[in-house]
Give the backbone structure.
Amino acid sequence: MKKIILITFIILLIDQFSKIYVKTHFFLGESINVFGLNWFKLTFVENPGMAYGLHFGGLWGKYALIILRVALAIGMIVLFKKWIKEGASNYLLIPMAMIFAGAIGNVFDGIFYGVIFDSGTSYDAESGNWIGYDGISKLTAFGHGYSDLMKGCVVDMLHFPLVDTTWPNWIPILGGNRIEFFKYIFNVADSSITLGALFLYIFRKKAFPNGLDF
């Protein structure tokens, strides 16, 4: 259990430090090249929903997602205890700890960022849309933020537009349109979940030598 706690703590520390730094130093939508590279940027966006900028169902969809994430986190804690008791290998425990840490990182944003920052993307009930803001956010006393518990947005900033160009005009239909790959903007927590799932797939035979057993 100690290694799981350590991995979770390190990932959460990096995740929250990067999010708080970007939110308190960048304007919403601001983007800078990292090390002068056009294909590696820090681009500050706020995401009310799932990983990689996906969301659904307005405010109630957000509530449902947070509750689901919390339920999954609790379920993973139960599984960790079961796996450790059964002597599960690091091929299972480490990737699952990465997934767990990533889930907790994004849950924290959604639950608490609305009450610890003075500004942020907020839900407008009249239009049914999430509305951005001007200026740079500041940390504030707990409960004196721009919104309520469970109404905060996840901070995303990692942006890798490996291809960012325009289709040649001579190409039918697509000519003149912009093409960008990889356009999704994400964070350390999303990366941890993705890498954890990838490692779990690659080492699935060692992680589950007797097949899946939940």
User: Anything to note?
Assistant: The beta strands are 31-34, 37-47, 122-124, 129-131, 154-159, 163-166, 178-181, 185-186. The helical segments are 2-25, 58-85, 90-116, 188-202, 204-207. The chain has a mean pLDDT of 87. The chain has five helices and eight strands.
